[in-house]
Every structure is written in C-alpha cells, then in structure tokens.
C-alpha cells in the first residue's frame, strides 16, 4: 500500500485542483442533464396527452386488425326473413366469394345446421327458434331463443365475460378466432383460420384449392383448360391476375416505386456534383456564387420530400413523375451540401501535384480531387437510394403512385389487412434487396472489403 505524505498531497491538490476537487458547477452537469431529460419526457407525456390516448385506445380492434393480417375469416349468416334459404356461407362476408359447396366446417341435414368453430366449439341452429352453442370448457351448452321478430333471449344462468347480452342483441366472442352475433333479424357466425386464403388463385378460379401435385400434373397435361394458351401459361395467368391479391398490379406498383427511387437519386447526384464543385471554397473563389448556391441547397433540402410531392402533384397530377421530381429536388440540396463539404476537406497536396504536371484546371480537379471524394459520393448515393425506396412508398400514398398508393387503398377498406401485410412484406423485402445490392456495388466501385 502506497502512502502519500501531507506535503505531497498538498502539492498534488495545488497542481491538479480542477481534477481532485472539481468545481460545484462541473459536478452538477451530469445530474442536471439527467433531470433535464426526465423533465422533457414528462412534458412530452402530458403535451401529447398520452393518458388520454391510452384511455381511448381500442385494443380489441387492434387485436382484430392484427389477426386479419395473417388469418382469413369465414362468415355464416342466416336472415330470419329468408330462413327458408338457409345459411349464406362466404369468405370475408363478401357476395363475390360465396361458397357454392358447403365447406367442411358447416353441416346441415335440412332441419338443423351446425357450424364447427374448431377449438372454440360448435354452434347449432334447430331451424326453428333455438341456437345452441357448445363450448369445450363448459359442461352445459349456451342456449338462445331467436326469431319471431323478437329480440334474442339468453336462456342460461351463467354469463361469462366473453358473452355480451345487451337485451337487444347477443354478441359472444369465445376467443379472438370466433364470434357469434345474434339480433332480431339474423344469426351471424364468424370463424378465423390462420393463413392467407386464395393467395395463389382467386376464389372463383378453376385452380382454387389445387395442390402442388395437381398443378404439376395439369401443367404437363396436353388437355388444355383454355384452348388459346398452354396450361402452364394459364396457371401463371391465374396467379398473376388474381383479383383478390392483385399480384400483377402490386408488382407493377412496386416497380414504379423502385424506378422513382433510382431515377430520383441518380438524377439528383448528377445535378448536385457539378454544383458542389462550384459551391466549394477551394474550387470557386467567387464568394457571392458560393453563397447563392449554398442557399439554393438549403432551400431544396429544407422543404421535405412530402411537401415537394404535394407541390408536384398539383403541377403534374397523380403519378410517379411527381414523386420522382420530389426526390430529385430534396436530394439535390442534400447531395450538394455533402459533396461541397467533402470537396473542401479534400487534401490539396494531391491536387497541387496534378497541377504541377501541367494539367488544366479541369484535369486538376478531375484527377486530384474527384478520386478523393468518390468513396463518399458512392456511399452517400447508395445510402440515399435505400432511404428513397422507403420514401417513395410514403409519397406514393399521397398520390405519386407506386406501391404506396396500393398500400393506402388496402388500408382504407379496413377489411383487407392481409393485403396490407402482404404489401408491407414486399416493401421490406425490396429494402433488404436494395441494401444487399448497394453493399455489393460499394465493394465493386470503391474496393470496400468489409462485409
């Protein structure tokens, strides 16, 4: 153990006074910053009315929307006014997707109808006035009296939390995957199953429900379904033109989004590069020109891409051209600032060495400065290409076309959340693809050996 004499301690305190005994102001900096951050978060908590938002949140609807993104819903509906017609069976409750042949989960012998809710039990209607629901976790079934123009009546004595009885309607939700809704005019049963129904072929397609083996045999068969095309072409056409999932339209919109991002980024880089040289202090001695160009850069990048897209939609109308111009304008300002600063930070000795060989001013900057900023030029453009792929999706939703407009269309219906999830998966896949491609291009163009 090393001991320090009183004289040595006094000398150290005198020599390193600011280290050994820091001033009070310095000691308060760290806790002061923490308190300021906490205070800011508290202000934001109440300024954005977080308690009110949480109080108004409909978590039940959020769960249903989330479920609809990865599952499909079958409807079984009986109208008492048309009771003789029996239950109407459909996918998602649409008239365009009615089952001509009853699926396996529905059985009827003419008098009694039974609906299998998989793990949630069975709903039965006797064809007269009694609906019986058998739940696997309860010994006694739940019975309801319906029809006759009267409000439904629950005949049981035990009322679980998931069974809603308002006196005018019965709304039973045994789980997230099933619902039994009874009013004075109808019986409606919803049942969910995981999976994207009819993803490969439309509901009314002759190929709907076929297995991979059946499709393979059909593709190799000489008996054509459509005389004017081969079976393989017919299979591809049925998939591409699926009216429910619209694969062809969605991939075309995805291509539009990619074109907007690529063209917008590339044109912005081409425009910004010469302007950046003119705005660099070590290239252009004219202060007024440099000042003007830098203010133009500030103006272009100061207006967000969304605002530019709204302006160009007014000017050119709806379509990808408006989105492309919005990206060009914003990125031209950003690239101009980044490139001009990179040029000013370039090593002058390399440019002076090129000039000493008798090179012209253009050759001086071409061979003395440009190779130094090329890595930054490539890296920034590739990064913004990835970013603009996402931005093109957002501005497309405003009317600039592309996949963003398709995404907005699926969200407006509040029913096609599986289509929304499909588009989101494609956008994420496109961004991942662009990330991998940009990394590969970066390694090829500037010799980056890092993975």
From TrEMBL:
Pfam families for the chain: BPD_transp_1
Looking at the record, the residues that make up the ABC transmembrane type-1 domain are: 254-438
Query: Cellular component per GO?
Result: plasma membrane
Output the superkingdom of the source species: Bacteria
Record InterPro entries: MetI-like, MetI-like_sf, PhnE/PtxC
Gene3D superfamilies linked to this entry: MetI-like (1.10.3720.10)
Q: What parts of the sequence cross the membrane?
A: 28-48, 250-277, 306-329, 420-441
The record's GO molecular-function terms, alphabetically, read:
ABC-type phosphonate transporter activity
Q: How does it sit in the membrane?
A: Multi-pass membrane protein
Subcellular localization is given as: Cell membrane
Q: Which UniProt keywords apply?
A: Membrane, Transmembrane, Transmembrane helix, Transport
**PANTHER family the UniProt entry points to:** PHOSPHONATES TRANSPORT SYSTEM PERMEASE PROTEIN
Entry similarity comment: Belongs to the binding-protein-dependent transport system permease family.
Q: What's the protein here called?
A: Phosphonate ABC transporter, permease protein PhnE
Question: Organism source for this protein?
Answer: Pseudovibrio exalbescens
